[in-house]
Structures are given as structure tokens and as C-alpha cells.
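Class prep. Write one:
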Amino acid sequence: MIVNNSSKATMAAVKNVSDPGATQGARRATEEAPGSATLASASGTDSEVVARARRRQFSNADKRRILEAADRCTKPGEIGALMRREGVYSSSLSTWRRQREAAGLAALAPQKRGPKFDENRAEARHITQLTRERDHLRSRLDKALLVIDVQKKLAALLGNPIDDDTDKP
């Protein structure tokens, strides 16, 4: 068995260090270090995570301003600095440029997410709604006519017949 003397010397040097916080470099982040107890209690909250993430949306004016600033960049690294400062990815810049070339400023408007509006589909949905309403009203009319027939028969049994002429206009 081969023993490495240099690793033994390193371990001995670490044991001789008087500051216990100096050897804590490999300590896991979840454990409390001797100096971190005051920092954790002073901050109040231990989480930097935002409660609910939201998609970033840039207004048309912001997109135009960023594109104009990117077009003015001439030196190497200026566009990278601009993107870091504005929090924009290069893919966003290329997409905005393509949109600007394709359809002007109207294409820079934020697009609505979800299914696109289809007039034929909306019309079919409206027809379906009207058909349901018609069927519901027909069933109510049938019930009302049944009640009227029962009332006529009852009136006839009691000797007080109702004329059918009142139904006609």
C-alpha cells in the first residue's frame, strides 16, 4: 500500500489552524456556519425566490429604444453590454429585428397567447347556443300546453268548459 506523505502534511496543517471558520469551506450550505447565524436572523426572510414568476414583457417603446441603441453600437462588446444592461437575450433582438423588417411597428406589439380567433368557429358556437336555447324553450312550451290541456279537461269535468276560441287570435 502506497501512502502519500504530501496529503498527510496538508491534513496536519489544516488541523493546526486556530480559526475553526477557516476550515469550513467545504461545509454544506444548509448547515449553519459560526458566523452565519447573525446574518440569517438579521435578514428576516431566508428565501430570495419570487413568490410567482412572471413572463417579461417589453412595451413597443422599449423594443424600439433597445433596437435603436443596438443599431448605434459600433465597437466590439457594446451590444453585449447593452443586452446585459437591458436584460435582453440576443434571440429577442433578432426576433424584434425580423418583426421590424417584416411588418413595421405593428409587428412589435405583444401577441396574445392561446388559440387564435376564428370567425367560423365563433359563428358555429353561437349557432349551437341558439339551438340549445330553442330546444329549452320548446320543452317549456310543451309543458305549458300539457298544463293547459289538463286544466281544460278538469274544467270540463267540473261542468265549466273552456272555449278553444280563446287560443286563436
